[in-house]
Amino acid sequence: MRALFSDPSRTALNMAYWGFVLYLLVPLTLMMAMSFKDANFVAFPISDWTLDWYAKVMQDRQFLEACIYSIFIAVATTFAATVIGVWIAMLIASTGGRWSALLFALACLPAVVPGMISAISLRIFISTVNMPTGTTAIILGHTVHAVPFVVVMALTRLRSMPPNLVDAARDLGADSIVAFFRVTLPYLGPAILGGMIFCVLLSIDDFVRTFFLGGYRPTLPMLIFAKVQGGMSPEINAMATLVLVVTAAVGLYAEYFTRRTRSR
Amino acid sequence: MTDNSLTHDISAARNGPARRYTTWIPTVVNSALYRSTLGVLVASPRSRFILLASVPLIWMIMLHVGPIYQMAKISFLSSYPIQQGRDVSYTLANYALYFTPLIRSFIYAAGATFVTLIIVYPVAYYVAKVVRPQKRSKALLLLLVPFWAGELIRTFSIIMLLANRGAVNYLLREIGWIDRPIPVLYTWFSLGFGLVYLVSLYMLLPLYSAIDKIPNHLLDAASDLGAGPWTRFRRIVLPLSRDGVVSGCSLVFLTCIGVFATPMLLGGPTTVLFPETISGFFHGASDKWPVGAAFSIIMLVTALTTAGIFMRIVGGKATRLM
Q: For chain B, which residues make up each domain, given as ranges?
């Protein structure tokens, strides 16, 4: 293969890439390093190292409760968003032409509206329908946000599905609902799982919707926000590091999983 | 009712059809008064145009623009109604109250979008075209890892980097370049730095997939014909990756407009962005909700319009956001 680039420009691109990697990774690495610091305040340099902050975090009831609450919301959100998202994707796939473009735009709207605006509009909406702020409202808000991503993922997979699979099932006597559950849904499987993991990450990350829709029980981001505003301590670093490691592991698994199913 | 229409028909029949078409118009046009006034005006093209334009222009300036002008003028006044014996003074304070954050939001979002584009483009190009295909997904994965940390954790890690007792200031002091820490946290710099850090993924992925689609043989052909790296970039890569630029910039812009937690943690009093202003209307008593809702609508419409105009100008008709 002929060299497309002269050496100087290649080196420059190389440096741009590695510089960008450093830019992305250094702050997080520093944040993690600080969680091992044996002192009560956050400041460089780190001279003594300790694991005490982790022990403290693991005994922190507030943190554990926030974890459980966040996970509960994420699971509920994922379930609701998957059902609704796949349903919408099936509708869009079954209509053609101008209508399907319109429906697609409508389905993607919550992904385009800035987070703050979406949170406020939901806040106004739930008070119009007399829903109290709290768990249900948070789940509703997170679901609205997550649905477009499920729709896009499911639709991409649906478009690659040979139409004669469903036709064959219908010929063999399945009605549309049976054909959906026996043929289409298994075919969509990988896309749905990818979408579900995405939903979990979106919901666990979300701050602004929770901030406007939530009650007094803090989710993880709310707890971290309150602690950061309250004052710095390596304890926050330990908390953030734990959350980061777990979410990154889930994300890596999702990436691995989708890559494997794509290459198959 | 039927009676009336019947009598009308009968009377019309009696008078005969011819009467209808004789009008007063010829009499007026031929009169001396008309000829000496309007007739003269209509005769030459220029005065005819003046006649045509007069009433509509006066109407539109008085009633279409006038009220808005009045409102705009009052919005600049320091006090209204104007009191006798006091000088009229003009001020921007009424705008500063809410519009400074709005304008600032737009400036920050546009600036962050531009900077992100400049920073991320070479990286996306490198991953899509320079890295060998087998290694490509690993190179991409390395860039994706930080984005599984949430918005708040990434913002928090920026604080670690930029605080007065943070890593950068410590390093500079150790080297001996500075004696006392440079206060960068809670300024425009830390906020911009954080915004770019937060959103660069939304730029990276569209750009990568757009550049990845450019066939290599186009670049080969260009370099065979004697094009240097800069010409190749300007004439081939940039035009063909236009879709990626458009969707990346729109996504980043809309995300930056809507960030809420980051400016609260990284910004200071001089960098209050519009979302924070809006959220002020929603805390406490609910009687300010309409104001907050109105401002949200203003923000949504201007943000979407800006993104739409940008897409139309840069991307042409065929581009879509997704």
A: 21-75, 97-315
Strand pairing partners for B77? B90
Fold (topology level) of A52-262: MetI-like fold (1.10.3720)
3-state DSSP call for residue A70? helix
pLDDT of residue B22: 64
Task: Please name the residues between 19 and 78 in chain A that touch chain B, using a CB distance below 8 Å.
Answer: 20-21, 23-28, 30-31, 34, 42-45
Task: Verify whether the Cβ–Cβ distance B153 to A44 is below 8 Å.
Answer: no
3-state helix, strand, coil in chain B (%, to 5): 80, 0, 20
Interfacial B residues in 203-242 facing A (CB < 8 Å): 216, 219-220, 223, 229
Its ipTM equals 0.80
C-alpha span between B247 and B202 (Å, rounded): 9
pLDDT digits (tens, 9 = 90+) for B282-320: 776 555 677 777 778 888 888 888 888 887 777 655 444
CB-CB neighbours of B61 under 10 Å? 11
Q: How far is CA B95 from CA A250, B171, B257, B293, B299, in A?
A: 47, 42, 19, 18, 15
Contact partners, residue B59, CB within 8 Å, separation at least 6: none
Query: Which pTM was predicted?
Result: 0.75
Q: What is the rounded CA–CA span in Å between residue B13 and residue B7?
A: 10
Q: Nearest-CA neighbor of A212 among A144, A115, A128, A143?
A: A115
Q: Which residue has the higher pLDDT, A76 or B263?
A: A76
**CB-neighbour burial class of residue B85 (10 A; exposed 0-12, middle 13-18, buried 19+):** exposed
Helix pair B93-125, B242-258: axis angle to 10 deg: 140
CATH class assigned to B97-315: mainly alpha
pLDDT (tens digit per residue) in B3-41? 555 555 555 555 555 555 567 777 777 777 777 777 777
Place of tokens 């799982």: A193
CB contact under 8 A, B260 and A225: no
